[in-house]
Structure formats: structure tokens, C-alpha cells
Amino acid sequence: MSTTTPSADPAGVYAPGELSAYAAEHGLTPVGVRPPLKVYLQQTWQRRHFIVSLAASKAYIRNQGGYLGQLWAIITPALWACVYLLIFGVLLNTSRGIHNFVGFLVVGVFLYHFSTACISQGAKSISMNQELIGSLQFPRAVLPAATVLAELFTLIPAIFVMIVVVIGSGEHFQASWLLLPFAVILQWIFGTGFAFFFARMVVQFRDFGRLVPFVLRALMYTSGVFFSISHYVGNHVTIGNVLSHQPIAIYLELGRGALLEETQVTLDAWLWGFGWAFGTLALGFIFFWRAEEKYARG
């Protein structure tokens, strides 16, 4: 393919649009312009290795600076589980209707905190990385994706602790345990999609960031983290269906169904898990992409 080299007049001035056309012939695009969705998706996929490296770096440095270092990735959810066990299991007695409340609570707390970390950190992924955005040209979707992947890396050692506690609570290995990675992957995909939504919202509406903690707290009390939804809704069938089919509750059910013998998971729950994960990812990615040109100014 032949190209035409732009030529300037004696004063060194190029014709209007000539340099832009020449740059476009060589694949150069203006900074801050949103590419077509297909191109944007390809550009993001081409940077998958960078996403993994950035996520690994974020996961590693998060807990550095203290004597315990990376152990905090395990200690933090374990401490939360102890607090919730004392408050909700002993003082408020929300263990009614649950045979293995320790296993039920630990799985719920660990997986709930994974989702909330994905959402809260993903929401700040653009606003907290303006220096990187201002110095390099890349699809901004890389940042929410890497942030949520970092949370997945942080969860992995905590999962082993969760399994040890579940075994200590009286559970025994069964074939359904092999489904746990699939439940976590679906939860991670959902978290990535949600991060795309919240990252754009925080950039465009700064005050939205202040609402995120309230959203997460509402999810905690409506997702059955430390109580059985079916036991507490009683005869309120509609309310029970709404609460039990919202995404966080679905992923807690899938995780518990994999590890706890008393929790039986139906095919319907897995279908809801797939639907929430890939539906949220697709819609979140498109929603994020539509404001791509605004992030450099965020």
C-alpha cells in the first residue's frame, strides 16, 4: 500500500488535515477519541498480559509495609468471620435453621468480602489512576479489569483457609467441592462487570463514590451473609424470591452449595449465576466504553 508523504509550503505550513490524514494512514489515532466497540474490545484483549501483570503487582503491594505482609489477605476475612460469628451467631442467634452455621458463615463472609472488594476497588480504578492515564495511551477498561483481577489473586490464599475452616466445622470432601472454582470465576466475572459500571459513575458523578459504601452495606444485609434468607422471609414469597435471586445471594449460594452438604444448589441457581455474570460483564463493558473519551479528564 502506497502512502503520500505530506509536504509543507515554503513557510513550513501543511495543508489543513494533511498531517492528520497521513497519521491515520499509519494507524495513529487522536488521543481521547473513543474507538468502535469491536476495536476497543480487541485493544483490551491485546493487553491481557499487562492486565495480569498489573493485577499481580496490585495484589502483592497492597499488604506490604506491615510485619505480617501478605498474611493480611487471610487474616482480614478471618477476623470478620469471627466478629460476625460472635454478633450474629451468638448474640443475635441468626443461626436458626442452619445446621453448620460456622461453615455457612465463613463461606458467606469470605465470598461476600470478595464481591465488595471488587465493587469498591473497581469503582475507584479510574479516579485513583489519573497519573497513569495521563502518561500512557491504552484502553481504560484495562484498569477496572486489572483491579478486580487483583482481588481474585488476593482471594486465592483465603480460599484455602476457608476450606480448612469448613473441614474443621465437620464437612467432608465431596465431588461438589470441584464446583467451587467455577462459582468463584462467575463471581469474578460479575465483579468485573459491576466495576465497569461503578468506575464510570464515579468519574462522571464524583458524589456517587460516597454512595458506594451504602450500596455495599445494603447488599450485606440482603444477601444472606449471616442468615438464611428462606428462614427469615417466612411467607413473603415475592420478597424471598427477589432477595435470593439477586447476584450476591446467588454466588453465596453457589459457594455454599459446593462446600456444605446441607446446602443443595439447583440448576436454576447456576443459570442465574451465568446470567448475572456474563450479562453484567457485557452491559458494564459497553457502558464503560461509551465514556472512554471522558476518562482522561476524570
UniProtKB/TrEMBL annotation:
Q: Which residues form the ABC transmembrane type-2 domain?
A: 68-291
Q: Which GO terms describe its biological process?
A: lipopolysaccharide transport
| Any one GO CC term of the record | plasma membrane
Query: Does this UniProt record's set of keywords contain Transport?
Result: yes
Q: Where in the cell is it found?
A: Cell inner membrane; Cell membrane
Please indicate if the UniProt record lists Membrane as a keyword: yes
Where does the chain cross the membrane?
Answer: 71-92, 98-120, 141-167, 179-199, 211-233, 269-289
- Give the membrane topology, semicolon-separated if more than one: Multi-pass membrane protein
What Pfam families does the entry give? ABC2_membrane
Keyword list (alphabetical) reads: Cell inner membrane, Cell membrane, Membrane, Transmembrane, Transmembrane helix, Transport
A GO molecular function held by the record: ABC-type transporter activity
Cross-referenced PANTHER family: INNER MEMBRANE TRANSPORT PERMEASE, TRANSPORT PERMEASE PROTEIN
Q: Hey, which family's this protein in?
A: Belongs to the ABC-2 integral membrane protein family.
Q: Return the protein name.
A: Transport permease protein
Which organism's genome codes for this protein?
Nocardioides marmorisolisilvae
